[in-house]
């Protein structure tokens, strides 16, 4: 039976690839896509999610707009990485499918209450504002969550928006703190693993050579945001961060990690948004996260290419 998931997202080119991978995979049933402000403002993330669903030929997928700002802070966005639309790099038509009337947080709460307990996995690949807001408004949903599989944070790779913090956690550290303290089972795919899943020219060209519109669009997006990461890190390619979450759901054998405690820094002058990972277990803090640190990158790109070819 297909695993039921809700993708919570702020598309973003790599978010878009994660959505495509999920929609191409019969092992997963996407109950809905909830959008949050992050890489770009909410109006654009809600637009971009629908653009991606239509690109995949899946206009029936329900897309919901959620929180337009962090719990306690002003919104920080990342147009410097993703371009002014968030999906720069591929020319795609404006979406014709509707945005759902309900708020994303209401959809999260209602779905988790309606579906059997332990049957819905949340896949947040942007700031955690929607998830934290749902938990705060309806604490009864927390034990009903099967697992939270999130892209966010870093430890050995430190930060990508500040010296200490990864973007998704930095945008709303208070939300992240609430989620990490919730007691829900969490699998965390931080920069430590996503930075080992780099694009290469052959990998991008394999996307471009796929039949239909999806492969060339993914290649165009990759061409666009690669330039930023290559310049920043001096690497040969760019990490495809967010699809790692979906790949972990499909093929956990491609990944390795360990159970550790992760706390979120919400007060640091220099370290706001840092994910303080007790990787070496030097404290007595109870493990609250499966922290993924390594990936079979060849296997990951083979899976991604094979699935995108289905759309």
Q: How many separate helices?
A: 12
SSE order, one letter for each helix or strand: EHEHEHHEHEHHEHHHHEEEEH
Oligomer: single chain
Shape estimate: globular
β-strand percent reads: 15-25%
Estimated radius of gyration: 18 Å
Derived from helix and strand composition plus strand pairing, the structural class reads: alpha/beta
- Spatial strand order of the main sheet: 3-2-1-4-5-6-10-7
Q: Count the strands?
A: 10
What level of helicity do the residues show?
Answer: 25-40%
Task: List unreliable stretches of 5+ residues.
Answer: none
The top level CATH class name: Alpha Beta
CATH homologous superfamily descriptor? Ribonucleoside hydrolase-like
Give a quick account of the main beta sheet: strands, pairing sense, barrel closure: 8 strands, mixed
Question: What is the CATH topology assignment?
Answer: Inosine-uridine Nucleoside N-ribohydrolase, Chain A
Average pLDDT across residues? 97
